[in-house]
Amino acid sequence: MMETSVQERPLLDIRGLEVTFRTEGGDVVPVRGVDLRVEAGKTTALVGESGSGKSVTSLAIMGLLPRPYGRVSKGVAEFRRRSGAVVDLASAGQGVVRALRGNEIAMIFQEPMTSLNPVMTVGEQIAEQVRLHMALAPQAAMRHAVEMLSLVEIPDAARRAGDYPHQMSGGMRQRVMIALAMSCNPRLLIADEPTTALDVTIQAQILDLIERLRKEHSMGVLFITHNLAVVAEIADTVTVMYAGEVVEKANVRDIFHNSRHPYTAALVDCLPERARRDSNGRRIVAAIPGSVTSAAEATGCRFAPRCQRAVEACEAGSPELLVAGTGHEVRCFRWSEA
To answer: Is the pTM of this model over 0.85?
Structure first.
């Protein structure tokens, strides 16, 4: 196999990532064998129910796992820097990751009220990051902060830069989080369910904003969500996780129209537009029976207890990711029967 050149490398290439937490009862592995790619200028959606390991994966990428209890125990997470050099985020020292975090890699967290500093104005918080990574003087950093607030369409940005987070609405605080993330023109943006707590109108505005900034700045975006309607709108490729493992990877069209894993198919069936009518004419939205299997308790296929197509082999062993088409991989013994 020919060696991949720097130009051909994806922006982020995660292979075999495993995260381990040390507990009083022994080691727990909530994320195991994750393979994930994000291309420059493209959006990869990371999808799954709560407890599937999406946020733990993002924290591992950012070097934000709680220390000393959490660590990346296996795998690599190669990130291509602006210089073209490739750094393995999984094994790099804290100093290297800290220099990248907020600079070349940025993250939008799910709840801005708990992510922003309540005793600093929003302008000060953006300016602080700019001074750290771009070495700007205080006045220049504040001017840049105001420009970033304008970029995310906050009206009267110069005045609002002096506001504290509690003086802003939820939608405005999320815009501030995006301005903070974009302040150093990152190559990779990780958005961890950034619209979950927002109403539908504001949610649409935030999604449009992230899409516009992605196109204007040629960023790679890793968008973490459980909302397939959002995935259909913004994603180029989709990685589906279940109980700490990747169960399917494909382009967004194949995920919706040619899904191979029973879990992915069940998620798509749960969409409101797929609702069926009962004998009384009422619309019934499908639901997946049971709950997410604990990664610590799993033995065979982790979806087997909830899968209608499970057979004895599914209980006995866990399948590997198998090729199911061009750019399409699935972790299922019976994928060809889907």
So the answer is: yes
